[in-house]
Structure formats: structure tokens, C-alpha cells
């Protein structure tokens, strides 16, 4: 499982011209599931995401998490994160969890993170989404579990 997180001052996801999810200050999470991922890894990733220190404290150091600042979390499914790009000029997706199972894991992730954090929004699994964001920093990290 991979999560690309970006510290944002604002972000939104649109499907068919309609905003389906948005946040102000917080993190935008692009989330991809690999074949061998299991639900305990999902729970571990949620804990890591919510605790990951990407926001600056009074001394200008990245010592605060999205929970510490009471920021928002916007989650977007993105299977391309788990693509095999080691050779050739076209990504391979044999490492990705099949769509039906990936959607189950995505729903599980959303349900679990909403229990752990009050401000969570999301895109639509499998939809053609337009994502807009203002990356604050820029600050971007790739997390793996």
C-alpha cells in the first residue's frame, strides 16, 4: 500500500463538474493498494497518516500532524501509485489489487479513518476525477506500509 501525501492549504475533487470532496488546510492523500495488502496494513497506514508530522510548529520545524492542527484529510484512490515502472515506457498494473478488492479496501480505509479523525472527505473510487490543490510548501511524502 502506498499513500502519497501532500500538505495543502486547500484541495478539492470534482466528478462530472460537481465537487465531491474538499478540504481547507490539511493533507491530500492519494492512495493505492497492492495485491498483497491486508486490512491490518490499512489500519497501520491510517495511524501513520494521522500522526505524520508535516505541519510547522512555532519554531518553523515540521513537528505537527494533521490531527495536531485539526486539519482536513482528503482521500483520493489512485491505483497508478502501485504501478510497476521499473522497465519500459508503459506502466504495468499487475502489482495492483484487482478493482473489486481495491474498492473494498478503499471503503474500509474511509470508514476507519472517519472513526479516527473528524474532518475527512474523499473522491469517488474508479471515477474520472479532477483534483485541484494548493500544495503548501511544497511538502509531499510517499508513505508505504
From TrEMBL:
Annotated EC: 3.1.1.96, 3.1.1.-
Keyword Cell wall biogenesis/degradation: no
Molecular-function GO term, any one: D-tyrosyl-tRNA(Tyr) deacylase activity
Binding partners and assembly: Homodimer.
Protein name: D-aminoacyl-tRNA deacylase
Organism expressing this protein natively: Bathymodiolus azoricus thioautotrophic gill symbiont
Swiss-Prot/TrEMBL domain comment: A Gly-cisPro motif from one monomer fits into the active site of the other monomer to allow specific chiral rejection of L-amino acids.
Similarity comment: family membership: Belongs to the DTD family.
Coiled coil regions, renumbered to chain: none
Keywords: Cytoplasm, Hydrolase, RNA-binding, tRNA-binding
Function: An aminoacyl-tRNA editing enzyme that deacylates mischarged D-aminoacyl-tRNAs. Also deacylates mischarged glycyl-tRNA(Ala), protecting cells against glycine mischarging by AlaRS. Acts via tRNA-based rather than protein-based catalysis; rejects L-amino acids rather than detecting D-amino acids in the active site. By recycling D-aminoacyl-tRNA to D-amino acids and free tRNA molecules, this enzyme counteracts the toxicity associated with the formation of D-aminoacyl-tRNA entities in vivo and helps enforce protein L-homochirality.
One of the protein's GO biological processes: D-amino acid catabolic process
Motif, Gly-cisPro motif, important for rejection of L-amino acids: chain positions: 137-138
Pfam families for the chain: Tyr_Deacylase (PF02580)
Domain of life: Bacteria
Catalyzed reactions: a D-aminoacyl-tRNA + H2O = a tRNA + a D-alpha-amino acid + H(+); glycyl-tRNA(Ala) + H2O = tRNA(Ala) + glycine + H(+)
HAMAP family xrefs: Deacylase_Dtd
Locations listed in the record: Cytoplasm
